[in-house]
Amino acid sequence: MATEPIGRPSPGTAPRSTLDGALRLLDYWTTAYRRTWKGSAVSSFVVPLLYVLAMGVLLGGFVEADPATLEGATSYLAFVVPGMVAAQSMTTVFGEVTYPVMGMVKWHKTYYAMTAGPLAVPHVVLAHLGFVAFRVAVTAAVFLAVVTPFGVHESWWGVLLAFPAQVLIGLAFAAPIYAFSAGLKDESAFALVFRLGMIPLFLFSGAFFPVANLDQPLETLAVLTPLWHGVDLTRMLTLGTLEAGPALVHVAYLGGLVVLGWWWALRRLERRMVV
Amino acid sequence: MTLSEPGSMIHAADLRKSFGGFEAVRGIDVDVRPGEAFGFLGPNGAGKSSTMRMVAAVSPVSGGTLRILGMDPATDGPAIRARIGVCPQEDTLDTELTVWENLFVYGRYFGLPKAEVREKVEELLEFVQLTDKAKAMVDDLSGGMKRRLTIARSLVNSPELLLLDEPTTGLDPQARHVVWDRLFRLKQQGVTLVLTTHYMDEAEQLTDRLVVMDKGLIVAEGSPLALIAEHSTREVAELRFPVAAEGGTHEPLAESVADLAERVEVLPDRLLLYTHDGEETMAKVHERGLEPIATLVRRSTLEDVFLRLTGRTLVD
């Protein structure tokens, strides 16, 4: 005896494009984010405030410097805020594309479930990086808003441009680190990534002091780091000292990292999952 | 010209899979017809899962031909995966989401509209008897419930072909029967089932036709009954003895009863006497003065077929 088929047949379809496929993962990411956003929301509001108070207001109170030595900032607070905004865009990303990526590919096999249907590796990577971009956008928006009452923004348009710049900085770190994590067999390497990668970048890429204070060749080294490009871009925008040439170099450098990281991420994850 | 039999759900010819220098699948021919329940039976490492991953269009073919729903997985992977259902051996459920959310987000991967997925989720929860668990977190479910949820998830796109890799491995007997019951119903609805198992009772219960795999090759093919008729006797008389001493075997015992059966298999703790009338054989064994610690007369199973074909047991 035949029983009724389950519901009306609704066969799936292959995605029309990489974007179409990635958008099919939107409900996964919003559902997952609804479970975790409270913890990250509190920290993304409180942490910037603590940094601004400690480094900008209290420590900055001891810094009496000519604006010329502070890359045009009229106070240490105004100098350090864009540095910290850019640095936070980086640190947010390190948290999002290390252990969580390993979790989804190795521990929880979430990616295998996502690609059992019509979706494939490019959709999964684009959706995950899209979520990271969203996280960076939220934390940067909160940070830029929280510091507004301190009078550190020279112009409204500078702040408006500093916001998308944070997403670019975030993705410039996210794509290559994602690629690294996607192929990693063992999570112990992450400790090194944080200690020898993130923390030195955070401290020495010009967020807290002008890189000109470093002796050669350290200054050159600092100027070559992606975070310095991000810090300088953000600082030019919030201080209103924008120069087209250097700004374009920053954008091209960071954009290049996004493209290279994307290519490497697809390669590494496909090599891992499609066997 | 198409190589595929018309209407074949799966067509494989000389299908191969290698990992580096290791060949996991060494040239198999398979055709699965619409509506049938087809099984791959074999021990761990026989190449069943590698075959299933190629059929699921997630693992590239190393050699030979493979067509799924008439399509080539090398070029039409997404279109194939959009129309099949996959229940993997390892649960890949999202433990941070609820039962309902797991089904909903998965349905969205297939490009189905939200309203349609919501409707489908309710029906599927009903089908796998998890409606009252809709809001539970996956972590709080029993093993059997998780497996039913995975089966429900694999049905979200109303697949024509459902692939199940070891669907009841690790479940207790009661949970296994619940899963079997659900799979029977799907079969009645016309869904083509393809499953791997190393449980001979599961293969006997669920499949119309199966292939026995060993070391990457198909060693026999047919219905469970036909395979038993072809490769074994009607009944088996089992004689249990203390486990043979290190270096020793029960071979001498086997020789003493060899003429009482068509065939005798020697296992470390047992002799299996293949015969048409188990009780009669058992009586003669006792007449000869053998004193096994336990005896059992039973019907032949696929386990016996496997033992005959490979000289090894399925579950070791």
What's the number of extended β-strand segments of chain A?
A: 0
State the low-pLDDT regions of chain B, or none: none
Main sheet specs of chain B: 6 strands, mixed
* Chain oligomer state: heterodimer
Largest sheet entry of chain A: none
Question: Structural class of the helix and strand makeup of chain B?
Answer: alpha/beta
Strand arrangement within the widest β-sheet of chain B reads: 5-6-7-3-8-9
Q: Helices and strands of chain A, in N-to-C order? A: HHHHHHHHHHH
The CATH level-2 architecture of the largest domain in chain B is identified as 3-Layer(aba) Sandwich
- Level-1 CATH class name of the largest domain in chain B: Alpha Beta
Notes on the protein architecture:
The complex is a heterodimer of chains A (275) and B (316). Helix content of chain A is 71%, strand content 0%. With 275 residues, chain A is mainly α. Chain A has one domain. The mean pLDDT of chain A is 91. The model of chain B has no long low-confidence stretch (mean pLDDT 91). Chain B contains 11 helices and 13 strands. In chain B, helix 5 (143-154) runs parallel beside helix 6 (173-188). Chain B has 316 residues and is α/β, with parallel strands linked by helices. In chain B, strands 5-6-7-3-8-9 form a 6-stranded mixed beta sheet, sandwiched between helices. Chain B has a 4-stranded antiparallel beta sheet with strand order 11-12-10-13, with helices on one face. Chain B folds into 2 domains: 10-223, Rossmann fold (3-Layer(aba) Sandwich), CATH 3.40.50.300; 233-299, YebC, transcriptional regulation domain (Alpha-Beta Plaits, 2-Layer Sandwich), CATH 3.30.70. Chain B is globular and about 75 Å long. Chain B is 36% helix and 26% strand. Classes of the chains: A mainly alpha (275), B alpha/beta (316). The interface between A and B is large, with 39 and 47 residues.
Task: Set out the fold topology.
The complex is a heterodimer of chains A (275) and B (316).
Chain A: H1 18-23, H2 26-59, H3 76-96, H4 99-107, H5 110-114, H6 121-146, H7 156-183, H8 189-204, H9 218-224, H10 226-239, H11 244-273
Chain B: E1 10-19, E2 22-32, E3 37-41, H1 48-55, E4 63-68, H2 73-83, E5 84-87, H3 99-109, H4 114-127, H5 143-154, E6 161-165, H6 173-188, E7 192-197, H7 200-206, E8 209-214, E9 217-222, H8 224-231, E10 235-240, H9 251-257, E11 263-267, E12 270-275, H10 278-287, E13 294-299, H11 302-310
Parallel strand pairs in B: 3-7, 3-8, 5-6, 6-7
Antiparallel strand pairs in B: 1-2, 1-4, 8-9, 10-12, 10-13, 11-12
Helix pairs in contact in B: 3-4, 5-6, 8-11
